[in-house]
Automatic annotation (TrEMBL):
Signal peptide: none annotated. Pfam families: HK. This is Hydroxyethylthiazole kinase. It comes from Paenibacillus aquistagni. ATP binds at R121, T167. The keyword Cell cycle does not apply.
Length: 269
């Protein structure tokens, strides 16, 4: 995995414009759709049990986000997930708020059991809580991370047979064998709701264009982090409102060359 490959993944995403089917939360729906469009991806949000099978089977990726889940939505996630598995569509799970309530933890665990999930993207506390550990979580936000995120991501990846993306100040991406750390990103991402949810959907877009999930995930996380740094240089001094809009502008503008010049990715194993 080198910066040229990451740039190529970005260019492939732009060329192929994959359809990303999101079953996501009510907080981030609009921001997620705008972020995907800015990058050059086709987003669709579809929830009805009557249509999710048909939508998921023709998508490039399916993103399941439990941020404001209801039983009806969970039923749709299972139908969409079955369609994705039957048609070779990668599934990305964002276990928003796992550990904050038993319903969230148990739903994430059930989805991992019932579906073949390709990538799980969350903050370290969410990943740990789905693994059955108890890490501090405040609603949907990670508390102070005291554990070893790299060990956690590697163990979770092995346990789930999936790629795990544990994000925060540093992002760990592991499939249990290969593990990467991405040091791009900016603190302003913590002041905008949906910054993590949008990243999960962008991971879906990169997974849709074909490279193996661990590499697609590292490429997506690096690209997103570089875009956030560029946005911060322009808008951080104005505050979160300006930063949020500038992040969309930079997802539109980011090039392979930006990633090659500004990417900070290390392979740990
Ligand atoms: P949380 O609810 O705990 O904020 P999240 O689902 O919003 O979790 P994050 O962990 O915030 O997801 O990750 C979203 C993006 O923000 C990632 O690209 C990550 O690298 C970046 N990020 C998060 N915290 C920081 C930070 N302190 N410094 C730099 N980048 C960060
Ligand atoms: N409450 C339920 S979902 C949600 C909130 C605030 C959005 C979480 O978004 P992110 O990307 O995890 O910060
Ligand atoms: Mg965040
Ligand atoms: Mg989140």
């Amino acid at each position: 995995m080198n910066y040229t490959m990451i740039g190529q993944c970005l260019e492939q995403v732009r060329e192929m414009k994959p359809l990303v089917h999101n079953i996501t939360n009510v907080v981030v729906t609009n921001f997620t759709a705008n972020g995907l469009l800015a990058l050059g991806v086709s987003p669709v949000m579809a929830y009805a049990p009557e249509e999710v099978y048909d939508m998921a089977k023709m998508a490039g990726a399916l993103v399941l986000n439990i941020g404001t889940l209801t039983d009806a939505e969970v039923r749709s996630m299972l139908i969409a997930g079955r369609a994705a598995n039957e048609h070779g569509v990668p599934i990305i799970l964002d276990p928003v708020g796992a550990g904050a309530t038993a319903y969230r933890t148990e739903t994430a665990q059930m989805l991992l059991k019932e579906l073949d999930i390709s990538i799980v993207r969350g903050n370290p506390a969410e990943i740990a809580n789905v693994m059955g550990e108890t890490w501090e979580i405040k609603g949907v936000d990670a508390g102070t991370v005291t554990g070893d995120s790299a060990a956690l991501a590697t163990q979770a990846a092995t346990a789930w047979g999936a790629t795990v993306v544990a994000t925060g100040k540093e992002d760990i991406i592991s499939d249990g064998t290969s593990t990467y750390v991405v040091q791009n990103g900016h603190e302003m991402l913590t002041r905008v709701t949906g910054a993590g949810c949008l990243l999960s959907s962008i991971v879906g877009a990169f997974a849709a264009v074909g490279s193996e999930p661990v590499k697609a995930s590292a490429a997506a996380v690096c690209t997103y982090g570089v875009a956030a740094e560029k946005a911060a240089r322009i808008a951080a001094s104005h505050g979160p409102g300006a930063f949020q809009i500038e992040l969309l502008n930079q997802l539109y503008q980011i090039t392979a060359r930006d990633v090659e010049n500004q990417g900070r990715v290390k392979q740990l194993s």
